[in-house]
Amino acid sequence: MRTAALSFDAIRAELGVRQGFPTAVLADAQDSVDRGPQGARTRLDLPFVTIDPPESLDLDQALHIERSADGYLVHYAIADVAAFVRPGGPMDNESWRRGVTLYSPDTRTPLYPQQLSEEGASLLPDKDRPALVWALTLDAAGNLTGVELAPKMVRSIAKLNYAQVQADMDNAAAHASIAALAELGPILTDQARGRGAIELPMPDQEVVQAADGSWQLSFRAQLPVERWNAQISLLTGRAAAQMMLDAGVGLLRTLPAADQQAVEQLRRVAASLTINWPPDASPGEVLSTLDGSRPQEAAFVDEAAGLLRGSGYTAFDGSPPEHAEHAGVGAAYAHVTAPLRRLADRYANEVCLAIQESRDVQAWARDRLPELPAAMTAGDRHDSELERACLDSTEAAILADRRGEIFDGVVVEVDDRGNRDATVVLTDLAVRARCVGPGLVLGTTVRVRVTEADVASRTVRLTVAR
């Protein structure tokens, strides 16, 4: 089957992805943009820049970093979506039905209409935009020493992309607004490891369109600048979480720590794969020494991903929750940096702004905090289902005309019941599929035959080649 014939529309219809926006929602969005942002704000004249994939137009974040006498000053401008969305209005109600922006290989299904998410509220270059600006003061070791949040009018001066920024940094030609990211990013990364944070050195499996219109799969490793930029978002999320915990009201992104039994099982997996795990090292510290390039490392990283399953949202009002930490971050953490793409961020930002301004949280935000965990869980689940279905469909399409062929693969997961059922990654095609047969040992290379590849059921089956 030619993968150009793949229908992601059919997958979206099957999964009930909301296509387009009702007329009332579009009218509400246009009215909000025409009306302009609500609330008084002063202008902050800093040369902010955005760093995003080149095709992105829903720009949530703009960044400016400067060195200080004893550390760094980070200004992180976050699109002020609440300045446009009328509580209880058509756009607000529709955002609750969606929860998050959904991504397919051929399109995105936005949380808010495009005239807001890609125009009026987006931090596009050379446009005045309302933003909530986090001013984060850090010492030379990356410790937060000061946090302020204020509504401002900002202007981004450049829309940068990750590959461009990485190339500039590699050539000592980084944009002045973010040149210090090459210093601060590694500092924050090292600090995260010290907290026991877990970062998986696992490449992203992506569906990409070739020049001839066909769809292919690839594994893409993150660039260093992507990881450093993520640390700025994590830093902001940690600051927001602590602010809300101190005030006794808010919304956290939480993940329970893995129990000791799970960690010990992972230690045994490491030993079986000859992965060095010093006695006093945390899982995150072990993972930081790997890049996933060897079969044994790829298998270990796949197993370690289980430590990050089970994340959710925790709302609280009156007293902090008993379990407030996100084990993957190694600290309390909140989602506040992507309000154009996540419903929860609009609410968490209002809570933080109210705390900063020593006022009551507005009722539209406070009253609905308890509803957000369920809404976000549903949205995240929908996103995962869509991503998995698109990947599975592409894998089946790529192999549909290659049944009977033999490929090299890496065993990255083995069924607990024995060594005859496993998950294998085909290294040349970036396909991940179930495989049956004898001698399937975790972290080893194996020759496998394609026995089933059905696009309709999105199923691929492999067997050990004899």
In a nutshell, what does this entry contain?
The protein is an alpha+beta fold and 466 residues long. It has three domains: 3-197 and 222-255 and 322-367, no CATH class; 260-305, no CATH class; 400-464, Nucleic acid-binding proteins (OB fold (Dihydrolipoamide Acetyltransferase, E2P)).
What would the keywords be for this entry?
466 residues, alpha+beta, OB fold (Dihydrolipoamide Acetyltransferase, E2P), 3 domains, six-stranded mixed β-sheet, 13 helices, 19 strands
Shape estimate = globular
User: How many helices?
Assistant: 13
Low-confidence stretches: none
Overall mean confidence score, pLDDT: 95
Global structural class: alpha+beta
What distance separates the N and C termini? 26 Å
Helix content: 25-40%
Largest sheet: 6 strands, mixed
What is the strand content? 25-35%
Q: Mind telling me the C-alpha Rg? A: 23 Å
How many separate structural domains? 3
Work out the number of β strands. Answer: 19
List the helices and strands and how they pair.
Blueprint: H1 8-14, H2 23-35, E1 42-43, E2 48-51, E3 61-68, E4 71-79, H3 90-98, E5 102-103, E6 108-109, H4 114-120, E7 128-139, E8 144-160, H5 162-170, H6 181-194, E9 204-209, E10 215-220, H7 224-247, E11 249-254, H8 260-272, H9 283-287, H10 295-304, E12 312-317, E13 325-326, E14 331-332, H11 343-356, H12 363-366, H13 372-399, E15 406-414, E16 421-426, E17 431-436, E18 445-454, E19 459-464
Parallel strand pairs: 1-8, 2-8, 17-19
Antiparallel strand pairs: 3-4, 4-7, 5-6, 7-8, 9-10, 11-12, 13-14, 15-16, 15-18, 16-17, 18-19
Helix pairs in contact: 6-7, 7-11
